[in-house]
Amino acid sequence: MTEMPPYHAVKDEEKTSGQSDSDSSSDTDDWDLSQCFDKPQHLEPIKGAERVEHSWRVKEKYKTHCVALVLCLNVGVDPPDVVKTQPCARLECWIDPLSLSPSKALESIGHALQSQYERWQPRARYKQSLDPTSEEVKKLCCSLRRNAKDERVLFHYNGHGVPKPTAQGEIWVFNRTYTQYIPLSMYDLQTWMGAPSLYVYDCSNAGIIVDSFKLFADQHEREYEAQKNEEGTSSIPQVSYKNCIQLAACAAGQSLPMNPELPADLFTACLTTPVKTAMKWFVLRTRTRYADRDLHDLIDKIPGQVTDRRTMLGELNWIFTAITDTIAWSSLPADLFQQLFRADLLTASLCRNFLLADRIMRSYNCTPVSSPALPSLAAHPLWAAWEQTLDSALAQLVTLSSAPHPLDYSHSPFFRDQLTAFQVWLDLGKWCGGRGVPEQLPMVLQVLLSTLHRVRALQLLCRFLALGAWAVRAMLAVGIFPYMLKLLQASAPVLRASMVYIWARIIAVDPSCQADLVNAKGHTYFLSVLQDPTVDSEHRTLAAYVLAGIVDGYPAGQEAALQGSMISICLEQLGDREPVLAQWICISLGRLWRGFEAARWTGVRDLAHEKLFPLLEHSEPEVRAACAFALGSFVWWCGGAGRCEQANALDLQVGVQLAARLPLDASPLVRAEILAALQWLVLIFEQHFIAVYIQERVRRNDRGGPSGRVEAGQEALAGGGGGAAGGRSRPPHYSLPAIGFGSVPVRLFSTLCAMAREPHPRVAQMATDILNYISNQSAQVDSVAEPARNSASLPPSPGTRHHEHARTLPGHGHRRGKSGLPHTISEESVANRDRDSGGDRERHKDSLSSNSSQTCTSKKAIVSTEFVEWAGGAFSRPEPARPDCESREHHQRRWTLARNRELRREARAACRVSRLETQAFHSRCPLPPAVVLFHPYDQHLAVASKDNFGIWDWGTAAKLCVGSWRPAWGRISSLAYLNEHQHALLAVASHTGNLAVYRPSGSSTEPALVSAWRALDVSPPPQYTPPRAQPIYSIAQLVSDQFSSNEDKLATNKNKQQADPNLGGGTVVRWVAARRWVAAGGRARGVRLWDARRELRVGDLAAPGDAALTALGAARPDVLAAGFQDGAVRLWDQRTLAPTHDLRRHAAPVLAAAHSLRADLLVTGCANGEICIYDTRKMAVLEEIRAPGPLAAVDVHPLCDLVACGSLNQCISLYDLRGNALNTIKFHEGFMGPRIGPVSCLAFHPLRCAMGVGSKDSTVSVYVAESRR
């Protein structure tokens, strides 16, 4: 499905242009570098969309159950108030009543009218009342209302043989002898008909009936309220006439047309035979080239059936339905359209046909009236398409009738043309801004009814739904949903791709459709798609998403999916390489297990948890998070019946696996989901975590009480917030459950304490909330200790040694019975139980009810995440546009990467040894700078002190942004730019091993936190103390240090390290751009590597000894170099992670170990001023430089042959790689020159010949190689 981006050709051109020398060997093409931390979870908050109430469903949908056909024709007798013309309209239901006897004509007209109605609703119950009396009408209406109950009743009234309705809205019927006209009050008719009802009035002055109906409806409601107030409660239910629909042939004071070329019941003809009426009116109106008499005869003989779309009559009716539906949908308010045109079949058909009646009747000076009122749509432009269709049909009708032998009917191109128009709208829509919904959308609904254009219609519908949630809502509002449900019964493979896509969009926008799918057994369709190996991964992913929506918090959906073997089908798909499919497979399983004990035991039987464990190491963070969600649902106990030993063992096994992944995963998304899963273990084994908590409090109090040092993240153990048990020791006569050393609760509690010290705020807060929950629960131990002492203890678990004076802690929210937990839980017991539980699985499964998800009461979660809801939001958002070589983003990227390439080329061409003596930038900082770092391409300088950092434009001296740093994370010790080639990020590391990645804002606002994690396990965490004042070295001391032996230097250095615990205590990070790695080192053994793209730990580069890492660089492109506090320099191969060299030339902490790209040399420097230059091919020392010490910082320019040494004695010495001193920047240069303080940090620009310097007097400067003016 993915096409090659159009810029690939451009990339190939750029790669082959201008690289004739060694340029290409050392330069990585920026086009090949992927972006890190640029996925949606890094760019937007992880929040699910708020569920909105959708209005596309008909709130009160009634079926027309009964139909009353009341015909007052009195054939042969004209009413006294009507003067008919001669000739005049005579036809009633296309029958001339004068051609038959009066009784026969009346009976034939009644049957004809019933047959016309039956075309639209054959299942309704029809009753005729021909020339009735008022008693007959009452009996008929009351009978139909009793049969219809709460459904709709249709009352069709034809008053062509009686006087016009009176001014009070009374209609006329007959007496028993047909000698008098009897008025029938609308008040009485309302009482008999009840509600909901549909009224059709085909008589003159019909509008007065509609007006009177409203008055009498209000009167009914007032009388009901009065009766209710008098009696207190009314036994008669209130009838609401708001749901009644009325269709009248003309307005008040108007008479029906008497044109002899028209039927007398023109309004009824439009409502019941719209195609025939429209064709006859079209012939009368246009006077076509064919003889009228011949055409009228042919129209009466249109071949086909209304219900058969393959015939002419059926196709014309199909087109007419599509056109009138589109006219109504595009012109009426949504609520009114849903009420009238998406009700039952008969009501919708009559309302559609009413639009034709409005168009035809208005041409004869009659204004049809409706309630609810519909605007006049007679001038809608789509009527022209209908007339064109009629013209083509009439021409073909003449051809078919005059042919000597039968000809096949040629279908109309109407729907094909409409689909083409819809396609044009989709193709050209991107060039139009603010466009509305296409008017062809209702046409697509009608096309879905036929197999001829169904595939194309579904494909275009998929393209339309890809525009976003608004398109889905428009599709649902137009009424396509019932047809999509019916299409689930179609087994054609060609429809699968479109069907799963459309249903995924529907479920994403309106999750309540899950009930419709379950009722229609639609889950079986998606299960079959999911397990079909011939379906591609993309559409199986969509099927998995729909299944996840079906089982989301819906017990009936969970039960249906479980009966359909959803668990085994999903587990079979876990081996697919498509990450999005694996993600939604996990989410589907998690939603199925949530609160559904029967499904969980089915997963236990299929070893689902063991099959999910490998996904915790998946390369995609979303898959790992989804797996953690699934495992969290797997251990979610609904709190119903007592738990068994096997369930406890499985839960602890899952908890151990999840907790083991926390220090290995850099994604906050994954760690948050793991914590959300571990909270269920805290709730399940609540007693044991309380015991661990109290034992830890007792241990800390015994060690020194609350005044002792408490680590961050364990504030609950320090007293106060934990409740009454805060500073107390163990209650008398009350023993806690024995928690063994190394048991699972102890390890999980330690993991939670460690996560509470996380640098990511959200993850740390979740862990803190769980710890606070344990603390609050432990506060109740003292309050129940005395009652518990006098009560009988619960029996111990099988296989558990019973202590005579031990009592179980009281549970909160439930009580554990004989299947309670043992007092000692270890990993070995978990493994043993898991091995021994195979024979007991079926027994435990049978003991559980399949409806446990409905009967048990779930415990309330301590913390929650919205990852699953956020992930599902991707299916409701607009699909991203395909790469466009003419888009602004593409041109901006091309310009950026071309600029980067040009800067690198200029840097290689201009690299030479030069003096850095011109100060181009100088600024003061709130605190002394600890780290400075140049952006390689932008004119940005990042500066960090111990608890804040900022970015300056060192060309204009403008401060771009300032970021805050929490003191609890430790003091800032290192900076690194990630994604330098485009959309650079700033990584900030602290001395405690925490690493945070920020996205600079480019303005005065604070940078946004992208990700944060503990990159290095610093043990023990050093306590920061201000560094001691460094003495100014005398000449005698320098001479003494120069001529002292290596043994003396090592001994002196060891004594200094023991005396100063802060020396070499910071975490150092380096960005390995070619591999998208982050390397970190500090007070830990070796170097830790993190994959920034996968957000996973790659591994550790082991180093012997306990010396802290003090410098990190590269010896060659694939070799990582690190300097240590003991003076050693070690090299590792990045490809194999194996050590290559161990250099021990220095007697002081190493401050730099960097690679010079120009000369292929490795330069190392230590704190006492000793600089060594190695040939990387032989690792032999070529030059040694002695700089005046003590040094605070050393750096090597990667392109120029420059080495800079920053001294605490307020000077900076620069050397070339041959050991020659170039110049020295001292505390003053000439008269009134710039003053510098003791150097705290310095760094070269990666490309330009520039150097940034931070001093302990809270200043930062940039020196460049330019002549002083």
TrEMBL record:
Residues 1-33, 701-731, 782-857 are annotated as: Disordered. This is Raptor N-terminal CASPase-like domain-containing protein. InterPro entries: ARM-like, ARM-type_fold, Raptor, Raptor_N, WD40/YVTN_repeat-like_dom_sf, WD40_repeat_dom_sf, WD40_rpt. The keyword ATP-binding does not apply. Transmembrane segments: none annotated. Residues 61-214 form the Raptor N-terminal CASPase-like domain. SUPFAM superfamilies: ARM repeat (SSF48371), WD40 repeat-like (SSF50978). It comes from Bombyx mori. Residues 830-847 have a biased composition (Basic and acidic residues). It holds the Pfam family Raptor_N. It comes from the Eukaryota. Residues 848-857 have a biased composition (Low complexity). One of its GO terms (cellular component) is TORC1 complex. Belongs to the WD repeat RAPTOR family. Keywords: Repeat, WD repeat. One of its GO terms (biological process) is regulation of autophagy. GO terms for molecular function: protein-macromolecule adaptor activity.
